[in-house]
Amino acid sequence: MSRIFLALALILAAGAASAQTKPNPAGTIGSADAKVRLQTLGYKDVHDLRRGADGHWTAKATRGSIEKSVTVSPRGPVVAR
Questions:
Q1: Widest CA span of the chain, in angstroms?
Q2: CA separation (Å) from 35 to 1, 2, 21, 81?
Q3: pLDDT digits (tens, 9 = 90+) for 1-60
Q4: Sheet harboring 66-72: ordered strands across?
Q5: How far apart are CA 21 and CA 30, in angstroms?
Q6: CB 37 within 8 A of CB 76
Q7: Which pTM does this prediction carry?
Q8: Contacting residues for 57 by C-beta, under 8 A, at least 6 apart
Q9: Count of domains forming the chain
Q10: Residue range(s) defining the domain that contains residue 40
């Protein structure tokens, strides 16, 4: 039962953070949105978060016990390598 409440709290927190940081007119997202997207997908210890000239965010993040390089597109998709 407590897992359900925790999941609901995470979903609400992600929605609140997303509502506070809206895309700019160029269609890019802010660093807070990129981090929330990763955390919503189960990534932890998000670090080295940098935005490229194309608006994509790259970072290192851990999912499970494996660190991966991740890319967050301004339109939403996340790619992990």
A1: 44
A2: 27, 24, 11, 17
A3: 556 655 555 565 555 444 444 444 456 689 999 999 999 999 999 999 999 999 999 999
A4: 44-51, 57-63, 66-72, 78-80
A5: 6
A6: yes
A7: 0.65
A8: 29, 31, 34, 49, 50, 51, 71, 72
A9: 1
A10: 2-80
